[in-house]
Design brief:
single chain; 343 residues; mainly beta; Thrombin, subunit H; Immunoglobulin-like; 6-stranded antiparallel sheet; 2 helices
């Protein structure tokens, strides 16, 4: 019976040149694992913006890898994998991995840590992306980010009782996303559809952002907490799958920003008011932008480079937002302001 060895010819490391032997054979050995055994499989290393329609990233690099933990012992580990790649593939330059599942469909995985090497291969844990978050930036551009979402309220009732009469949904999710200039801007005013029910989808609002713990000093990933919110048919567009939808045609062309100064958070409670100002010798004009249903219940009064915005005491607009524009002859800036209920 003919013998078999993964490295041919078999290495002999007893001549005092062990380091040379290691360098000569270790790369070939792992490469044979990838190309000559069933452990290796084709994957795509991905980076850049994701197009939800084509399901393609800006950058996709085809290579081979070993995917581990594909047969977990517990359902709570079913989305977790490990990837082993060639060192020259520079896994650290990518944020996502596309891997074929048992049915032959491409699934997207998020690289959870900074990949590192043991001088044989590069390794990193990866989590399956089970959802694509979709929102708009301040210019109205639609952004789509594959993410890994987990339950953050496993043992609560899923309901919030208000005065023992009104009951609203209350659940929380943790979402893990690639860290970049777009996800870094996600704040407590961002709302998303997070559901596969296209008729009565659940809406969630960002209530916590963690930019540091999982960044690995290289902007790897961020974690946000999403809390269930109320669907608002006036601003939430189910057809486009966008909460707080902004018509891109209605957004003024951005210029150099003007700093709008205010106290506390950018929010006003119904029946209340807030003062905004700009420290500038240039004349500033303030204006409000939002849906007719919201703007009709607001009042603004300006004196010099300062304005006061009043919000009518009307619970129907709680949870909505509007934009405060500050414009000069050359520049403009905008501030997204939330409308809150009474304490």
């Amino acid at each position: 019976m003919e013998s078999w060895y993964v490295i041919q010819p078999q290495p002999t490391m007893n001549g005092g040149f062990e380091n040379d032997e290691w360098d000569s054979y270790v790369t070939d050995a792992f490469d044979e694992v990838l190309t000559e055994t069933r452990l290796g499989q084709t994957v795509y290393l991905c980076n850049g913006l994701y197009d939800a329609e084509t399901e393609l990233f800006e950058i996709e690099y085809e290579t081979q890898a070993v995917i581990q933990n594909v047969t977990p012992d517990a359902y709570t580990q079913g989305w977790k994998r490990q990837i082993l790649t060639r060192i020259p593939d520079m896994l650290a330059n990518y944020k996502y991995v596309k891997v074929k599942d048992t049915k032959g469909n491409w699934q997207i995985y998020l690289i959870m840590t900074m990949p590192d090497t043991n001088q044989i291969y590069t390794k990193a844990p990866i989590h399956e992306c089970n959802y694509v978050l979709k929102w708009q930036d301040s210019s109205g551009k639609v952004l789509s980010y594959p993410c890994s979402i987990e339950n953050a309220s496993q043992y609560n009732t899923g309901e919030n009782s208000v005065n023992s009469v009104m009951r609203t949904g209350f659940s929380q999710l943790m979402a893990w996303l690639s860290f970049d200039e777009n996800t870094l801007k996600i704040g407590r005013t961002n709302r998303f559809f997070v559901d596969y029910d296209k008729t009565s989808p659940l809406v969630y609002r960002t209530t916590s952002m963690n930019h540091v713990d999982y960044s690995y000093n290289e902007n790897r990933i961020i974690r946000i907490v999403l809390t269930e919110d109320e669907y608002n048919p006036d601003v939430d567009n189910v057809e486009l799958w966008l909460c707080d939808y902004i018509d891109p045609e209605s957004v003024p062309v951005p210029t150099e920003p003007i700093e709008v100064i205010y106290t506390g958070l950018p929010e006003i409670r119904i029946g209340g008011r807030k003062t905004f100002k700009v420290d500038s010798e240039t004349a500033i004009i303030f204006s409000l932008v939002g849906t007719d249903a919201v703007i009709s219940k607001l009042r603004i009064n300006q004196e010099n480079n300062q304005c006061v915005v009043w919000v009518e005491n009307n619970s129907s607009i709680v949870g909505n937002h509007f934009k405060l524009l500050a414009q000069s002859n050359a520049y403009q800036s905008e501030l997204l302001v939330s409308i809150k209920g009474v304490m």
